[in-house]
């Protein structure tokens, strides 16, 4: 069945079953491979995308449920928040193996969108469900704080 999706600001038509997970549509049909497959059960966060501006696990979201929503993948994240996060990630050398990083960045954008000066608790809550094989959670939290500081300075 043909389904039209709003992906990264463009309408894309795909011919897939209604119950196909959005993750596989992004990766296999649209070649947007920045969104990763990790567990397939919404437990690891590697597949995180934004749906109507909110981080969501794409591995369990049927494409039919996403057809009237705005979907943003890591390929299209280009805001002051995402740029500050990417700079902080680089400055603190956060990625190790890098596999989870697109999902981590997508969730971190959600944290900073909702909390411009997040507490550790707000970061931990916003990042919960994002697993890192390399256990760089401390660096991720530090990078989110650094990005928040960079944003505050640029807005002052």
Mind sketching the topology for me?
Elements: E1 2-7, E2 10-15, H1 22-29, E3 48-51, E4 54-57, H2 63-66, E5 70-72, H3 80-91, H4 101-114, H5 120-127, H6 137-155
Helix pairs in contact: 3-4, 3-6, 4-5, 4-6
How would you characterize the overall build of this protein?
With 156 residues, this protein is α+β, with helices and mostly antiparallel strands. The protein has 2 domains: 2-74, Roll (Ubiquitin-like (UB roll)); 80-155, [2Fe-2S]-binding domain (DNA polymerase, domain 1). Helices cover 42% and strands 15% of the residues. Strands 2-1-5-3-4 form a 5-stranded mixed β-sheet, with helices on both faces. Helix 3 (80-91) crosses helix 6 (137-155). The longest helix has 19 residues, at 137-155. The N and C termini lie far apart (50 Å).
Summarize the structure.
This protein has 156 residues and is α+β, with helices and mostly antiparallel strands. The protein has helices spanning 22-29, 63-66, 80-91, 101-114, 120-127, 137-155; strands at 2-7, 10-15, 48-51, 54-57, 70-72.
List keywords for this structure.
5-stranded mixed sheet; 42% helix; 156 residues; Ubiquitin-like (UB roll); DNA polymerase, domain 1; 2 domains; 6 helices; 15% strand; alpha+beta
- Mean pLDDT equals 95
The CATH fourth-level homologous superfamily of the largest domain: [2Fe-2S]-binding domain
Distance between the termini: 50 Å
Number of strands: 5
Class from secondary-structure proportions: alpha+beta
Task: Identify the CATH architecture of the largest domain.
Answer: Orthogonal Bundle
Strand count, sense and barrel status of the largest sheet are: 5 strands, mixed
Taken in chain order, the helices and strands follow as EEHEEHEHHHH
Radius of gyration, in Å, reads 15 Å
* Number of helical stretches of at least 4 residues: 6
The CATH class of the largest domain turns out to be Mainly Alpha
Enumerate the spans where pLDDT stays under 50 for 5 or more consecutive residues: none
Please state the oligomeric state of the protein chains shown.
Answer: single chain
The name CATH uses for the topology of the largest domain is DNA polymerase, domain 1
Assign a percent range to the helix content.
40-55%
